[in-house]
Amino acid sequence: MSSKGLFVILFFLSINTFSQKVLHDLRNKTDSICNKVQIKSFCKVLEFYKLKQYDSCYIYSNKALLDVTTTNQKDIIYYLKSISPMEKLLFKKSLFSLQRISDTGRFASLKNLKIGYVYLNQQKYDKSILSLEKCLSSKDIMKNVKQRSVIYHNLAICYLSKSNFKKATFFFDKQLSLIKKTDTSFIILAKTGMANIYYQQYMDSQAIPLFKECYDLSLLYRDFKFKESTAFNMAVVEENRKRYKKSVKYYKESNRWKDSIWNRDKIWELIERDKKNVVAYKQQEIRIKNEEIKRQKIVQKGLILGGSLLLFLLGGLGFIYKKLRNNNKLIIAQKEALSVANKTKNHLFSVVSHDLRSPINTIKRQHKKLEKHIENNDLPAIIEATQVAISVTQSTSRLLDNVLYWSLDQSNILSFIPEKNALHPIIEHLLFDYKNLVSVKDISISSDLETGIFVLIDKESLKIVLRNLIDNSMKYMKGSGTISVKLKMYSENEASIEIKDTGIGISPEKLKEINGLKDLSVAKIDHSKGVGLGLLLCQTLIKKNKGTLFFESKQGTYTKAVVLLPLV
Fold first, then answer.
1. What is the mean pLDDT of residues 171-178?
2. pTM reported for the whole predicted model
3. Would you give the DSSP letter of residue 39?
4. Cβ atoms of 496 and 488 closer than 8 Å
C-alpha cells in the first residue's frame, strides 16, 4: 500500500470459465459445422482446441477465417484465436480477436467477460468496468452464481484501484452475499479486498483483523499461493506497525510457501520428463526386440543354407568386435565424465566452505548483538542488527542458488527451454522482488524499460543472470547509492539490458580479465582468482541463450553491466 510505504497483495480473478450452457453451445455449434459443412480448416482449429494445443489453434484460425462464411462461424473462430495469446499474457493480441466477435451473437456475453478481464490486466479500469457491467445484464451470467461472484470481485478491484471505496465496498458486499461458507478461496479473495479498502483509508482496526482472518483461513486451505500471499500481507502489516520481529517471521513463512510452489512445479515438470523418458526407453526396447527377432530369422535361414554358415560366422564376429569397441568407448567417456563431475564436486565444496564462513560468522555476531540490544531494550539498535542479518542472509541464499545452478549445468541436468518471451514484464517482476531489500540497504532502483521487445530465451536462466548482476551492484555499493536498469533496442537484431550502479567501480586490470571470460570450465574457475562463481555462472547462462555479457566501469564512479540478447 503506497500510502504506508509498502504494498499488500490484492487478488483479481481470471475469468477463464463461463456458463455450462455457453460451453455446451460452443461445442455443439463447432461439431455441427464439421459434420454438415465439413470445412477442413475449421475442423482443424476445433481439433487443436480440444487437445489444448492453443498455438496451433491460433495459426490455423487465420486460414479458417478465410473459409468460413457466417457470422456465427466467425465468432467461434475469433474466440478460439484469442485463447493462445491470453495464455501467454499477450493481452493486446487477444483483445484484437475478441473485439471482432459480434455484439448480437450467442457469444456476446462470453466476449464481454474476456474483454473485461483483458482490460483489468492492462489497468484500463473504466473500460473493464464497462465490459463487466454489460455481463450482468446477460441471462446466462445471472444464472451462474460463481460467474457473478467473479464479476463482482473484479468490479470491486477496478473501483478500488480508482480509489472509489464506496463502489468497491458495494461490490465486495454483493460478492460476499453469494459465497457459501464452504467456499474458502472466494471468502479469502473477498475479505482480502475488504481489508485493502479499510487499510487504504487508515482504518487499521477494521483492516488488520480481516487480514489475520484471511491468513488463518489460508492455513486450512490447500492452495500454496493463498498461503504465500496472506503471509506476505501480514508481514507488510506488521512492518508498518513497527513490529519487526513478527514481520520477519511472516516474511520467512511467505518465502517458504513461495519455495514450496516452485518445488512443486519443478517436481511435476521432472515427473512429466521422466514419463517421456520411460516411454522413449520402452519404444527403444521394442525396436531392439524387433531387431533381435529379425536376426534370429536370418540365423535360422543361414542354418538351413549350410553354404552361408561361414559368412554368417564372420559377420557375427565382426558385429561382436564392433559392439565391444563401442562399449570400450562408452566406458572411457563415462570415466572422463566421472572425473569432471568429481572435480566439480571438489570445487563446489571449496567454494561453499570458503564463501559461507564469513556470512555465517557475521550472522552469529549479529545474533549476539541482537540479544544484547534486546536486553538493553535498544529499539534502533535492534532494527539495525536485524536489517544487517536480513542482508547477509539474502546474500548467502544467492550464493547457494549459484552453487546449485552451476552444479546442475556442469552435470548436464539443468532444465534449459528457450521460448519467445517479452523482456519488459520479466524485468519488472524481478525488480519488484528487490523493493524490500533495497529499502533495508538505503539503495534506490530506477528503471527505463521499452515495451514490445521479444527475445528467444530460457526465462529462468535470464532471471538468474539479472539477479546476480543486481546483487553485485548492491554488494559493491559505498553505503547508499542508486542502481538504474534500462531496456532498449541495441541494434536491428539485438536488445540490450543495462544495469548501472554508483558503486566503487572495477580496476582496468580486473575489468579486462572479466570481459575476457569466454569458454568456462572448472579448471578455469580454479585459476580465476577474484572472479566469483556468480559472474562465471552469468557468462555460462548468457552464452547458452546465444547472447553477450560485458562490463564498462570507471573506478570510484560507476560500473555498468550490458547484456545483449538476439531478437526473435
1. 85
2. 0.42
3. -
4. yes
